[in-house]
Design goal:
Domain Serine aminopeptidase S33: 39-148
Protein name: Serine aminopeptidase S33 domain-containing protein
InterPro entries: AB_hydrolase_fold, Hydrolase_4
Oligomer: single chain
Organism: Anisodus acutangulus
Largest sheet: 8 strands, mixed
Radius of gyration: 19 Å
Shape: globular
Number of strands: 10
Pfam family, one: Hydrolase_4
Distance between the termini: 20 Å
Order of helices and strands: EEEHEHEHEHHEEHHEHEHH
Length: 280
Amino acid sequence: MAPSPSIPNVQGNRHKRVTVHNSHGEELVGVLHETNSLELVIICHGFRSSKDRIPMVNLAASFEKEGISAFRFDLAGNGESEGSFQYGNYRREADDLRAIVEHFHEEERFIAAIVGHSKGGNAVLLYASKYKDVQTVINISGRFNLERGIEGRLGRDFKEKIKQDGFIDVRDRKGRVEYRVTEESLMDRLTTDTRGACQSIPNSCRVLTIHGSMDETVPVEDAMEFAKNVSNHKVQIIEGADHEFTLHQDELASVVVAFVKAVYYLPTTPSSHQHSLNVM
């Protein structure tokens, strides 16, 4: 791996809080793991999660150790970011990611990869299908079939109930409302075309899907569906890993970093970096 050019006036490694406004005027909050590189990896969390969950923190730290800057952030309605939590929001979360990419493009950073865990995996794939300006995408434990997994959260009769009441409140074990699912947000999920999006990702974009063989949240079969529908795709199954890779963090990070570095040919001067941005 060639040495990366440095950013002027940045000294040493540091973690920096960065805020970016999305297209709805909401403030998205993230943490930049600054290594002095112009190259940057952006990391998206999953459903009702945040930038501070273990997979996101460990992945950012692993890139940092390799001298690659990383940015983990909270999608709107999650963590520290503004906005209200919505059950669906798949396409809107891809647009949140767009706001982050554009922010760092304005700072003349080169987006080396976008990485998403669980629902964040869907966000990075939707991004790749729509904007086509990032050439390395990593989908960790993403769900291909968005019709599955709903009954487990909303109950077997969710379609009838939401038609009748217009919403379903999801409660915790103590009966407290955790979040509300509106008919609109449910339909957002059910009308998100994962297959069509995957087939729209250009062949120039390298996609890696990583899944745990013991994932009880999203079945490992979904990883195989991504493989059937993305043209330039690799699948990596981590044996024994659960949905969050609880006991397999090091293995997950190793696979992710290696995939990014496999074709990570860094330019040697800021001017050649600028050229690489122009041709993306």
